[in-house]
Predict the structure.
Amino acid sequence: LFSEKIVEPFVDGYVSGETPSPCIQCNSFIKFGFLLERAQQLNCKYVATGHYARVKKNHNGHYQLFSAKDPEKDQSYFLHRLNQYQLEHLLFPLADLPKSEVRKFSKKRGLPIVSRGDSQDLCFIEEGKLAEFVESKNKSASIRGDIIDHNGEIVGYHNGLHKYTVGQRSGLGVALGERMYVKRLNKNLNQIEIAPRPGIMNSICQLRDLHWINNISNNKKLVCQVKPRYRSNGSIANVTIFENNEAQVDFNEPQFALAPGQAAVFYNDDEVLGGGWIDSVPLK
């Protein structure tokens, strides 16, 4: 199940020029999908995890998802695709605690404390081995192609789109006298387009496969805070909702490196409303 729902779409995404977010899918399908089902087979009422996020039940009996009290540790972005049933049956005991308090709590009770930094790597890939992992799963990943600048001139070559992400600056193998960033990964032409930083700022993106924590999908317009990646503060944006579970996001402030495959998550203050996958970014 993990391979089918997480690993295969991850590999396919990178090969197609997207930047997948497998942790979001894992939360939906594995931790609070498969694991929750198994827990209930064992007559367990809840699944408890160490995620930094908060769940509350409102006066209508609906469950709401909120960011954690500690903004530096908040992981609500990765949980935005959970449904009402899942939210009803999970517990986040760290929701109101900063990590420093968690360490004190553990030390006082003689529990083991891992003194390393927070993990930023994917659990199923050895650190620094992402490209090799993708190549081991898809033999056609390493196809040589052009690197072009923002004027369409060929300035270098690459050996596979999966080795690059939108917004990447280092490791381009191109020296043009100014800092250049990956602007676009073009699967159809097998090209990587690079540009100076202003060239990868954008205020509009298209979303697919929207998901709502509580059903507000009857709204055609929504004004809220939208975060287009985990560590981004995002911006207030106008969200125009279309049929087929699609939307357009118009940010009030230009955003850095909007990347297809990443999630754009909607917030009302500290409440998570839902979100969708970035499908495309208009050319400019």
User: Anything to note?
Assistant: The helical segments are 2-15, 22-41, 84-88, 99-108, 130-137.
